[in-house]
Fold this sequence. Notes:
Helix 8 links the parallel strand 7 and strand 8. The protein has helices at 15-21, 39-52, 65-77, 91-99, 111-120, 135-141, 143-150, 166-177, 195-202, 225-230, 243-257, 263-275, 297-309, and strands at residues 11-13, 24-29, 57-61, 81-85, 103-106, 126-129, 157-161, 184-190, 236-241, 284-289. The chain is globular.
Amino acid sequence: MSQPLHVTTPLLFSSALSEQLGVQVWLKMEALQPSGSFKNRGVGYACQHYVDNGAEHLLASSGGNAGLAVAYAGRQLRVPVTVVVPKTTKPQAIKLIEQQQASVIIHGDNWDQAHRQALSLKTARCAYVHPFDDPLLWQGHASLIDEVIADGLTPEVVVLSVGGGGLLCGVAQGLLQHGLNRCSILAAETQGAASFCRAIEANQALTIDAIDTIATSLGAKQVSQQALAYSKQLPIRPVTVSDEAALRGCFDLLEMNRVVTEPACGASVAALVASAKTLPPESNVLLVVCGGVGANIEQLWRWRQQFTEK
Length: 310
């Protein structure tokens, strides 16, 4: 396989969060990937594999971030890309996908409906790049842990956001590959998209009734089976937070690190803040700043105003 399509991202120590919470907080800055999110890792890896094995067209379904990562990969690999997005996708995300010379089809009220539409378009020469449920994705996302270990950090806790479970599976795979099977994972979701929490409670990957959250990138109604399987190999704990708490997490990252992220990413900050007292004092905590292109500073301020008026 040729040069990876993702970049090595900074690992930054957060003095502000560390002093506030009593643990050693390290930020893995995935918001600085070329497409703005961690998706570059697994999606890039999968796209390279498919093109190397003969794919002439890449097809994706996404609320934004995975679609943008596929569009970016397709442009780098010089193959056409079609992305099916649901109606809830932000105009800015669609614009960014189109700027990568990909075709965008708007279909359905949620990701599940866009996913089914995308599958109906698949042909023999077209590779479908799933946004979270593909072993190739997990292998690509596992490179995040490779980089953290190479930087000299051995995390005792990893905090990350969970939508369909692709990032969770990749991080879990990376931890196991490095023998870190005692490292715990706090899996953050918003209350209106808590499919992983429901899967843990039921011990099976059930479908939640609806998605009701500003963190639309977490909007998978059912997590992958592998995400649930990893919960039996590693100490993984789901943490659900409110939309308002996730938004506060976005503003924390904005103020501390001058980076704009989606509420799907801010949920991880909120989960860490809510869970800090349950963690061993001074433990090394890796917070994955997963990024996201579904929000800008104006949108964050509009959401804040909505919560202020309630």
